[in-house]
Amino acid sequence: MAFFSQRTPNPQPTGQPPSARPRLLTLKWVLWFVVVAVIGVVAWIGISGAIAIKNIVATNNNDGAPAAVLHASLKPTDVQTEGDSRVNILLAGIGGPGHSGPDLSDTLEVYSIDPVNKTAAILSIPRDLYVPLPDGSHGRINVVNTLGSTYCRKTVCAAGVDQGGAAMEGAIGQLLGININYFVRINFSGFQQLVDSLNGIDLTVPTELRDPLYPCPDPSTAYCPIDIKAGVHHFDGVTALKYARSRETTSDFARAARQQLVIAAIRQKAQTAGVLANPAKITQVLNLLGRNARTDIQPSELSTLVGLLQGLNNSQTVTTVLDTSATGPLTSAVIGGADVLVPRLGLNDFTGVKLFVDAALKDPYILKEQATIAIVNASGKAATGLAVETQLKALGYNVISLTEGQTQLISTVTNAKAKPYTASLLQKRFAGSFVSATISQTTDIVVTVGSRYSTK
Questions:
Q1: How far apart are CA 88 and CA 308, in angstroms?
Q2: Is residue 277 classed as helix, strand or coil in its secondary structure?
């Protein structure tokens, strides 16, 4: 997983753009293993199984994803805004006990599932993003997990929640402009103990790995060099963690490939050793994870989520990172002597960030219906028509034309064909009247933008 790359709890950022990393498969299979393990215990009647579940599963502060979303059975009128029909899971990696700053979330990823089209997207959030914090101050986004008690005092969290998880879901979701339905958080020890609980893993190393700068667990010793030869190996948890974390002498892409090999080996070992069919072994694993991992995915939702994960088309996965590239929404800054990342539009203006996220996590029903949309600008202002076209395209709408029309006060949405979800979303967005009429053969929906509409 990506957080295995952590070398210090919160190193000074360099100000350089974060790089996108192909981490989807590693994240997916760790999540898959935790979810399937919990399901196995749910199916086993026993006190130890119940305790294991209690140790790892916290109350969901926001009630998770609605059943209709999980089952892709929403009605057109149920979808209120673009993206409502996605399932968003925040994946956080922390150092854990024994590390300085053990609760800093130095890896934050939104793993977003499209239940309608059976695809997934992953959005990487840089740890140096400078944001408003739950305590009223400003700082790096990776400290939000440590401010759970402050967040819950202000928002009145439900009983039994993991306060750090609730803070990350609420605060980060608000900054990104999306609903975060669940979180999964795991530390180094959780991964290491997971491998050891399987009695190690077997892995074929394709290329020798040498890293003279690998950090030692004992802070009194700077480096513990790694030299892993190419060939077949049996790794214990310590070695597997080293193989997955090392990065100084290879690229991020090579490291990600190694992480995929490790997680694939974990999955293979779990299946071939019969772990997932052994309730006692599952309980042992969950007891280990219960001290090093936490989630608010509820047992009643796990079966559906496993089905979604197993049915995803990985070839259509989209990976995106909030960065400082020419098309990214962030820029570098120095605040209080520290290099950080801030929104390109201004310190506290996350409008551009939210638009970027909307474009990365497009609405499933818009993608499915692929309705052709014609915009008629009747606002009396040419700039409004251009802004609407840009905004709708960024959200994934299939805009095929923009023309000027006679000025009118109220926006209208004319739906000529069976594209009910897209039409319903557009009607809500423009707060306009709904018209059913015959229009061009090449156009499914006409949006007439009235002068009362504001793009802000």
A1: 12
A2: helix
Report how far residue 384's alpha carbon sits from residue 442's, in angstroms, rounded to the nearest whole number.
24
Per-residue b or e along 130-153, where b marks 16 or more CB atoms closer than 10 Å to that residue's CB? bbbbbeeeebbbbbbbbbbebbbe
Q: At what angle do helices 279-290 and 24-42 cross, to 10 degrees?
A: 120
User: Minimal CA–CA distance to 2: which of 182, 212, 262, 200?
Assistant: 262
pLDDT exceeds cutoff 70 at 49: no
CB 313 within 8 A of CB 210: no
Q: Which two tokens stand for residue 25?
A: 């498969």
The alpha carbon of residue 243 and the mean position of all alpha carbons in its chain are separated, in whole angstroms, by 24
Integer angstrom CA distances of residue 225 from 210, 217, 229, 248: 7, 12, 13, 11
What are the helix (H) ranges across 123-273?
Answer: 148-155, 163-167, 173-176, 188-197, 237-245, 252-272
As given in the structure block, the two tokens for residue 145 are 């997990």
Which helix (H) or strand (E) segment holds residue 37: the answer is helix 24-42
Mind listing the pLDDT tens digit for each residue in 313-364? 867 878 788 888 888 999 999 999 999 999 999 999 999 999 999 999 999 9
Answer for the pair 122, 27: CB distance below 8 angstroms, yes or no.
Answer: yes
3-state secondary structure 344-384: CCCCCCCHHHHHHHHHHCCCHHHHHHCCEEEEEECCCCHHH
Cα 67 to its chain centre, rounded Å, is: 19
Nearest CA to 274 out of 164, 199, 206, 365 is that of 199
Q: What angle separates helix 279-290 from helix 188-197, to the nearest 10 degrees?
A: 160
Closest-CA residue to 364 (of 180, 122, 119, 89): 119
Please check the confidence at residue 147 and state whether its pLDDT lies above 80.
Answer: yes
Max CA distance (Å), the chain: 76
Q: State the DSSP H helix or E strand holding residue 206, giving kind and residue range, or none if neither.
A: none
Q: Give the number of residues written for the chain.
A: 456
Share of the chain above pLDDT 90, in %: 43
CB-count burial class (<10 Å; 0-12, 13-18, 19+) for 304: middle
Residue 214 DSSP code = P
Q: What is the mean pLDDT of residues 270-286?
A: 69
Q: Is 260 exposed, middle or buried (0-12, 13-18, 19+ CB in 10 A)?
A: middle
Locate tokens 């979604």: which residue?
308
At 50, which amino acid appears?
A
pLDDT tens sequence across 292-308: 888 888 877 876 777 78
